[in-house]
Amino acid sequence: MTDSRQNRRAIVQKLESLHRDGVRSIPRSRVPARASAQTVSAPAPTPVVSTEAQMATSSKQIGQQPTEPLSAAIPLGERPAVLHILEQEVASCVKCHELAGTRRQTVFGVGNSNSRLVFLGEAPGADEDRQGEPFVGRAGHLLTKIIEACTLKREEVYILNVLKCRPPGNRNPSPEETDNCRPFFERQLDIVRPEFICCLGSIATKTLLETSQPIGRLRGHFHDWRGVKVLATYHPAYLLRNPAAKKLVWDDMKILMKEMGVAL
Fold first, then answer.
1. What are phi and psi of 205, to 5 degrees?
2. Domains, in order of start, for the chain
3. Dihedral (C-alpha) 150, 152, 154, 158: value to the nearest 10 degrees?
4. Which of 185, 230, 174, 241 is nearest to 205 (CA)?
5. Residue 207: other Cβ atoms inside 10 A
């Protein structure tokens, strides 16, 4: 029992340290619970609690679930305020020196913080950089039409980009830039906790799912991200250059709406 209490105390101290350092989520363990129990079991006949169970018990003391993000405990009514705090953190970020030096402002996210559906894009463009809101240019207007064709309203969903700053010349984000922004967009998603994520374009899809497969193979069916159903489709900017692909996007939207239980 003494060892168990010491283990529990050590885990609590570690979680508190991570929280002070800005860690807002702890990934799910990929080790089966049985293996975890074997790892920490003592030779004595005293019942041994697995590492995951110890963390679950200990984390209650600091209001945290170890296998779920902190935001899982955020009441619906408090999510806008928590997002606003994160938005202020994003606004002060200078990790990407080039982007921080050329942006007018950061572009955080917009919409319903309790939405079942999130649209995740690539990065802000010139219009977004100027207005501080994602998807407000030509591609944004097309996205709004797509949302409305799904019998939804733009304000009913949540919209964000992987990158919070506009890359100069609207170039593609670099791997380093997406890595720097990953904690921000993942925390946004953890706070909103949608049931569905629609990734718009290759970069958003590959970044979220951490895959190198082409968008043509990824679209048309669901993927999993932390228990959230993810559907990939083409970016509205691509549709402006290739109108024939609109039919493919509409096919994807029908799959998404059917899964959401939305009649078209």
1. -65, -50
2. 2-68 (no CATH), 76-260 (3.40.470.10)
3. -90
4. 230
5. 22
Of 10, 69, 30, the C-alpha closest to 187 is: 69
Tens-place pLDDT, residues 230-253:
999 999 999 999 999 999 999 999
Secondary structure percentages of the chain, helix, strand, coil, to 5: 55, 10, 35
CA-angle at 77, arms to 52 and 59, nearest 5°: 20
What are the structure tokens assigned to 175, written together?
Answer: 């791997």
Alpha carbons 84 and 79: distance in angstroms, whole number: 9
- In contact, 160 and 182? CB cutoff 8 Å: no
Distances in Å between the Cα of 80 and the Cα atoms of 76, 90, 135, 188 are 8, 15, 20, 11
pLDDT-above-70 percentage for the chain: 72
Structural contact between residues 200 and 119, judged by C-beta atoms closer than 8 angstroms: yes
Please tell me the distance from the alpha carbon of residue 71 to that of residue 190, in angstroms, as a whole number: 6
CB atoms < 10 A from the CB of 59, how many?
A: 21
Tens of pLDDT, residues 96-142: 999 999 999 999 999 999 999 999 999 999 999 999 999 999 999 99
